Amino acid sequence: MSEPGIRSPSAKVGGIVYFGRMLDKIRVHDKNELPADYQGNLGRGFDEFCAKFLHMQYHDIVRRVREGGTDEEILWWCFDKGRRPSETEIYVWNEFMRKRGWNDEITKTLKRRKKEAGICTRKRSASRNCWRSRRG
């Protein structure tokens, strides 16, 4: 499946994985180009985790994205309005996101989605690896 304008969840902004993907999804959604299978979880799941990690509300990040600015400017705005995590906290976040979907509470959902899409047949595939292969 093609994800036009949506970067990999492993891409970093300010050293933080997933943040840029969340911003991309907001921007693509605002252009009415977000794939239908993303619509139901917009602002939930990993988007919500990322916002909470920064002590922000997702809707506030959406509003800030709509005002414009670079990814880094928006991240620094989040640091100012929410919090700036330490290097250790960023490391823990990045590792959490890297391993999400592998032997945890979303593993069952991930396996179902992989089967439905006919992708990611490797036995040990974290959710971000599955996304990576879906980008085609």
Keywords:
136 residues, mainly alpha
Description of the structure:
By secondary structure, the protein is mainly α. The protein has a domain at 12-99. 57% of the residues lie in helices and 3% in strands. The protein has helices at 19-30, 36-39, 45-53, 58-67, 71-81, 87-99, 107-117, 127-134; strands at residues 12-13, 16-17. A two-stranded antiparallel ribbon has the order 1-2. A hairpin with a 2-residue loop joins strand 1 and strand 2. Helix 1 (19-30) crosses helix 4. Mean pLDDT is 84; it is low at 132-136.
Question: Would you summarize the structure shown here?
Answer:
The protein is mainly alpha-helical. 57% of the residues lie in helices and 3% in strands.
